[in-house]
UniProtKB/TrEMBL annotation, chain A:
Keywords: Cell membrane, Membrane, Transmembrane, Transmembrane helix, Transport. This is ABC transporter permease. It is found in: Cell membrane. InterPro entries: MetI-like, MetI-like_sf. Residues 85-291 form the ABC transmembrane type-1 domain. It comes from Fuscibacter oryzae. The keyword Phosphoprotein does not apply. One of its GO terms (biological process) is transmembrane transport. It is a multi-pass membrane protein. Belongs to the binding-protein-dependent transport system permease family. CysTW subfamily. It holds the Pfam family BPD_transp_1. One of its GO terms (cellular component) is plasma membrane. The chain crosses the membrane at residues 23-44, 91-111, 117-136, 174-193, 214-236, 272-292. The keyword Signal does not apply.
From TrEMBL, chain B:
Keywords: ATP-binding, Cell membrane, Membrane, Nucleotide-binding, Translocase, Transport. Gene3D superfamilies: 2.40.50.100, P-loop containing nucleotide triphosphate hydrolases. This is Spermidine/putrescine import ATP-binding protein PotA. Part of the ABC transporter complex PotABCD involved in spermidine/putrescine import. Responsible for energy coupling to the transport system. Pfam families: ABC_tran, TOBE_2.
């Protein structure tokens, strides 16, 4: 490379850095900074009325899995915590799978409409985003609560005699999360299906594939980037969900999000809350890495 | 029913749309395609070639009529149940699979044992000379290579019939010529019946055992390249394949009389009818004016084509006729615009065609 070329390259690199300065500053102040504070807090001592006291301690991290026995100060496994973690993971996975099962046909339907009517369908999908999440969640509450719409209709129709107890159960949280996160699955899937060359379907049938084989061997592998993006967009916020389990799960069916909030509120254990937040971040990162790696590996040996 | 037929279409009609907007893409087409032949469907854009191919492949169902494969009625059989494969115009290769995986796809769907899938795939890769590309994704191939993958993929399951919808139209001229030879070689080597669609008459004439000429949803004529070129059944076929002169005439005993009053020798006509007489430019000879039985004409234009010259002449009533003359190896033919001379036909050259 000549000197002039080198100068040119280093100049364009420098310019790129200058141009990204605002974005880098925002990232530093908005994301890295608070994260560092949370990380530091997780290694401090809890204050009496909330907040933290300066002094190094691993109690926050230890508190994720263990609690001190009230009688003899020995550490015992915190079953309640494990139940919350398990519920969070289970509900998030179920939500991801279910939004895919419902979202894929929806996205396919929209992508196969005429170019003229397609924007209308996409518009309908985005309408829920116009309303505050809390209000939408209360609307779901209104539908499924004991004297709610669903039970009233079912009782009027004579299909049930006592109201179904859905509200304040895992099922309620699940229904709420599927409802809230479905568009996040549909939109990336739609983008992927929209790019899919429908002529490949005929090529598949022509080469003796059944409808199911065409779906499994041709459509799904090709729209996989959309599926991966959709799963991430649904799984990550599901795992940290706060409003939905709070409103539909009541106080009892807690998920990690509520549990963390509890530590910063009534629990007055900020280090534990901070450690839990960090744990959530680590789990999500690892899960994503494994998932993306696995998804790409499968791609290679179809 | 003939046991020699690989594919047979009987009175197939395919209509798209409803009511006034209805289009009859195929209007009562019947054709018999023999086992092991290279059959070409030739016709202008929109004449229904693709539609007929799609009916044979099973992507469309006919509005009425029957499609037979090896004597079996397959009209309503889904495409994945028909031992027929297609080479798509767009190739439609699977982008997520490698070249070898594309070729193996059909065999896998047929649940062939893994060893057979492997050996057949290798055989096909060798047949289309793509062994070196086996592990590549199809997006990393040139147009000609993609074309070969599409061919190998469709040939691998050893279909009874291979359908090719303008497979060469996306290639440049040189590659196209190469692939024409390649296709012909593959057809001879595999012995599979090929149904080939094109709107390029030269491609059709040079490659096919038999040609079906289509126009406006109807099959106009089926025959060998020579049949169709020398004995076109109607004006459309005569004008679509090669160049043709048309003259209107009235039949009488011994021939057809032109508006100019000259008599042309044509066979097998009933006297007293208005007919169209067709003849090829190379079947016209130019002779000196005044020769007995020749038709007087005046040269209006001369177009030089290297080996031959197209000589446009006007008859006495103004009708234009083109004659193709081979250029003599020495000097020039001694023709000039405005020169008067006369036309003569080779015996049997002029024939009556339907309009
Ligand atoms: N799905 C369809 N819906 C409506 N009309 C159609 C459809 N498919 C084909 N047609 C019409 O049927 C006629 C024949 O179409 P076809 O595709 O068979 O022509 P083709 O001979 O293959 O032409 P080309 O050489 O341009 O490919 C055309 O007039 C076309 O517009
Ligand atoms: Mg076509």
């Amino acid at each position: 490379m000549s000197q002039a070329e080198q100068a040119q390259v280093s100049r364009s690199v420098r310019n790129a850095w200058y141009l990204s300065t605002p974005a880098l500053l925002i990232l530093l102040v908005g994301a890295v900074g608070p994260l560092m504070i949370v990380l530091v807090y997780s290694f401090l001592l809890p204050g009496k009325y909330g907040n933290v006291e300066w002094g190094f301690s691993l109690d926050g991290w230890r508190g994720i899995l263990f609690t001190k026995d009230i009688f003899d100060d020995t550490l015992v496994l915190a079953d309640a915590h494990l139940t919350i973690f398990w519920r969070s993971i289970k509900l998030s996975l179920l939500t991801t799978v279910f939004t895919f099962l419902v979202g894929f046909p929806t996205a396919w339907f929209i992508a196969t409409r005429t170019p003229k009517s397609r924007p209308i369908w996409l518009f309908l999908i985005t309408i829920p985003f116009w309303t505050n999440l809390l209000i939408r969640t209360y609307a779901i509450n209104e539908v499924i609560r004991t004297e709610g719409l669903l039970n009233t209709i079912l009782m009027k129709l004579g299909l049930i005699t006592t109201p179904l107890q859905i509200i304040y159960t895992d099922v309620a949280v699940f229904i709420g999360m599927v409802y809230v996160y479905l568009p996040l699955m549909v939109l990336p899937l739609f983008a992927a299906i929209d790019r899919f060359d429908m002529r490949l379907l005929e090529a598949g049938y022509d080469l003796y594939a059944s409808r199911l084989q065409v779906l499994r061997r041709i459509i799904l592998p090709i729209v996989k980037p959309g599926l991966i993006a959709g799963s991430i967009l649904v799984f990550v916020p599901s795992l940290g969900a706060y409003v939905t389990p709070r409103v539909l799960g009541g106080g009892k069916q807690m998920m990690i999000g509520n549990f963390i909030e509890l530590q910063f509120g009534q629990g007055r254990n900020w280090p534990l809350g901070a450690a839990l937040s960090m744990l959530l971040l680590i789990v999500v990162t690892i899960a994503l890495l494994v998932y993306v790696r696995y998804a790409n590996r499968e791609d290679a040996n179809v | 029913m003939n046991a020699q037929n690989a594919v047979e279409a009987r009175n197939t009609v395919k209509a798209f749309g409803q009511g006034d907007a209805q289009v009859r893409a195929l209007n009562d087409v019947s054709v018999e395609i023999r086992k092991g032949e290279f059959f070409t469907l030739l016709g202008p854009s929109g004449c229904g070639k693709t539609t007929l191919l799609r009916l044979i492949a099973g992507f469309e169902m006919p509005t009425s009529g029957t499609i037979l494969l090896d004597g079996q009625d397959i009209t309503y059989l889904p495409p994945n149940k028909r031992p027929v494969n297609t080479v798509f115009q767009s190739y439609a290769l699977f982008p997520h699979l490698t070249v070898a995986q594309n070729i193996a796809f059909g065999l896998q769907m047929l649940d062939k044992p893994a060893a057979e899938v492997k050996s057949t795939t290798e055989k096909m890769l060798a047949l289309v000379k793509l062994e070196a590309m086996a592990g590549r994704k199809t997006s990393q191939l040139s147009g000609g290579q993609q074309q070969r993958v599409a061919l190998a993929r469709a040939l691998a399951p050893q279909p009874k019939v291979l359908l090719l919808d303008e497979p060469l139209s996306a290639l440049d001229l040189k590659l196209r010529k190469e692939m024409q030879i390649e296709l012909k070689r593959l057809q001879t080597e595999t012995g599979i019946t090929f149904v080939f669609v094109t709107h390029d008459q030269e491609e059709a004439l040079t490659m096919s055992d038999r040609i079906g000429v289509m126009s406006a949803g109807k099959l106009q004529q089926v025959g060998t390249a020579k049949d169709i070129y020398t004995r076109p059944v109607n004006r459309f076929v005569a004008s679509f394949i090669g160049e043709t002169n048309f003259l209107t005439a009235t039949t009488e005993a011994g021939g057809a009389r032109l508006a100019t009053g000259d008599l042309i020798e044509v066979a097998g006509t009933t006297p007293g009818q208005r007919v169209t007489v067709a003849f090829r430019p190379e079947q016209v000879r130019l002779v000196t004016a005044g020769e007995a039985g020749a038709i007087p004409a005046t040269i209006t234009n001369l177009v030089y084509f290297g080996t031959d010259t197209h000589c446009h002449v006007a008859l006495n009533d103004g009708t234009e006729v083109v004659a193709r003359l081979q250029n003599p190896s020495t000097g020039d033919a001694g023709l000039a615009i405005g020169q008067t001379l006369a036309l003569r036909f080779a015996p049997g050259a002029a024939q009556v065609v339907e309009d």
